[in-house]
Amino acid sequence: MTDDIKTVIKDVILKEFLPGEDPSELTDTTPLITGGILDSIATLKLVMFIEERYGISLQAHEVDAEHLDTISQIAQLIRSKKS
Amino acid sequence: METLAGLHAAFIRAAREYPDSTAVVEPGEGSVTYRELANLSDRVRDRLHASGVRPGDRVGLYLHKSIDTVATIYGILKLGAAYVPVDPGAPSARNAYILDNCAVKLAVVERRFADRLRAELDAIGAAPALWLVDDPGGGHALRRALDHADADVAAPVAANATAAAEDLAYILYTSGSTGKPKGVMLSHENAISFVDWCSEVFAPQSRDRFSSHAPFHFDLSILDIHVPLKHGATLVLVNEDIGKDPVRLAPLIAEERITCWYSAPSILSLLAQFGNLTRHDYSALRLVLFAGEVFPVKHLRTLTTLLPRPKYFNLYGPTETNVCTFYEVPLPIPQERSVPFPIGKVCSHLLARVVEADGRDVPRGEEGELCIAGRGVMQGYWSLADQTARAFYQDGSGSSWYKTGDIVVEATDGNYTYLGRRDRMVKRRGYRVELGEIEAGLYRHASIKEAAVIAVPDEEAGVRIKAFLSCREAKHPSVIALKRFCSENLPLYMIPDQFTWCEALPKTSTDKVDYQRLKEMA
To answer: What is the chain B residue with the closest CA to A16?
Structure first.
């Protein structure tokens, strides 16, 4: 299931925030927030997408670079919320 | 009793009148009364004086927003020095440039930024004194730093300075078209005339609670800090993280019983869309002020429908003049309205005129450049005599007018409507962005041969920034690598949304970059 989540998140990030990027450049460990890919509004949009798609709710303190900086971290957070 | 003049004098008077009232609240960290803030800022004044800072010097502020920072600002002003706040989130190299550019005598720096800042300062051969403060919050870190310094030798009491009208109160750096930020020099008279205008129009009371949403290196902070603390009111600091998160911000405004809210429209748009505003009690809120960029009517209508009680003011003005026109939005906003509201009429402490390129006034109803004169207009740009001269024109009577670069039209009722820019500056999240500064940042990348940046209007984001690039090598860097490079060299709000690679950038017949063609390609 984690792989599915990663694919979904990766597709959204490529489509919404990295138009024109070669998909192979975006890996599970690419820094998203600290790497300048997701700014605060982009992070918020991604969180809203995640909450709607997976029916989970992220706490305010989880919406930061410590929890959401890579696709791996995002997938892990979603998985822990769903289980 | 001593008679003082200067931006700090009103705070000193308020501290005598309202010693036990709450001056500043920092949610989660604590609060201070007027007496406590006055005492803390006195200690900063004395310590700075003992460290060799004198009236007329500049003192850098490299601290996140906190009670400690407010106290430091007043300590600097009380000594007769000017404060120079930098963006703690910006790359250290940019901040080192700013501190060196205006030759600060000393900078008050959060310890976690110190090593990188020192390295950047060394690299440009600058060595201002640094006064380090651990993790500011609630005034506690500042107190500890002062106690620690006093433990060696107590700082003797220094007098509160009386500032002359033309003495500098602060320098705010804004984006510069040549790739380097430029320092806008604001005097005590500039600041006081603006604060007094706010007193006249918004009638602050000691029971008011003002938000401080804007960062302190942004000119909206001048109203936030100095208006409430003149009137015995309370300033509620909104930290950077909560400030950009509508889900956490919406309850904070209600719980803190904010009466006067001031921010850029972008966060108000987010609050209207994602803040679940109907869940909270906003009955205390009496004023919503916004400035810095155009507020899309769609989101303003949503906001004013959800919160119909406060008065809404559109404030307009560049850093060089602070707010120079204002407009109260008539409510309710009709469904059919889609064009943005006017920027309004000129403030009472300023004069405005609309001119053609040759400096002649245009007839009312025709478009031209808005020019501003009066007590609120900056002295100039720090050590940039040519740019300062170009920013002003002299009329026949010898009066100096600041050329805003904004194209406006005046309606028969005296309200101005903003139409656009005459140069390459855009507003993003309320910040001024010179597209040339982004291009200069991109040119620092070893692989980039040519860079051109354009801004495209966008209903959601205001503008989207698109970069067109050509590469020295066959394989160009990835978008991810470019974004990371930008985040290390530019403030976050300047990172382009989109990068497009070209064999070569399109050129005009005179071999200049063809921006018109790029806009068609975007």
So the answer is: B497
Substitution target in A40, A46, A51 with the highest count of B β-carbons within 10 Å is A40
Query: Which of B483, B500, B501 to substitute to test the interface with A, most A CBs within 10 Å?
Result: B483
Tell me if ipTM is over 0.95: no
Burial class (CB in 10 A: 0-12, 13-18, 19+), B27: middle
Q: How far apart, in whole angstroms, are the C-alpha atoms of residue A14 and residue A17?
A: 6
Q: Which of B358, B357, B359 is nearest to B373 (CA)?
A: B359
pLDDT along chain B (522 residues), means of 10: 81 98 97 98 97 97 98 98 96 96 98 97 96 96 95 90 96 88 97 98 98 96 98 96 89 97 92 91 98 90 97 97 97 91 97 91 95 97 96 91 96 93 86 91 93 87 90 92 92 91 89 89 86
pTM of the model: 0.87
- What single-letter DSSP state applies at residue B278? G
Contacts of A48 in chain B (CB under 8 A): 274
